[in-house]
UniProtKB/TrEMBL annotation:
MaoC-like domain boundaries: 29-143
Organismal lineage: Bacteria, Pseudomonadati, Bacteroidota, Flavobacteriia, Flavobacteriales
Native source species: Chryseobacterium taichungense
The organism's place on the tree of life at top rank: Bacteria
Name the UniProt record assigns to this protein: Acyl dehydratase
Gene3D superfamilies, sorted: Hotdog Thioesterase
Pfam family, one: MaoC_dehydratas
Amino acid sequence: MENLNTEQSAFDPENFSIVPQRGFDELKVGEVFRAPSRTLTDAHASAFQTVSCDNHPIHYDKEYAERYGHEAPVVHGLQVLSFTAPGATLLPHYFGNVFISFLELSCSFLKEVHSGDTLYSSLTITDLEPKGNTGIVTTKVEVYNQKSELVLQGQHKYLLKR
């Protein structure tokens, strides 16, 4: 019987990654990074309301929402935007230790989102701009609902070491 305790290699957390890390110059325009789908519940909306302190009745009062032409309370737009967080995908794991900062984001809210909607988000690399020993990665961000309707679109920019 083999002795499993002989010459064990030392564990090094620096070498533990979910996916192989890639440098700026190994990324490709057109690569898509998807997040797992998530179905929003009233509990999610309530938790976001607590964290954001946004207590406008459009987000939790059914009668108020209907009075102003909405079929149901509307999920906070910033909550929908949070579905584009890069950490919801594997993208920052590929960046690994070359990541410097999240530079900017923009978005347009295209359709209302309600409790019970399932959201599907993705980040697609649209531009790689080398800047000396750094580079800027631009991604298109999109969020679709279960009806295949685009509910949010925009972009992110990240600064990486080269």
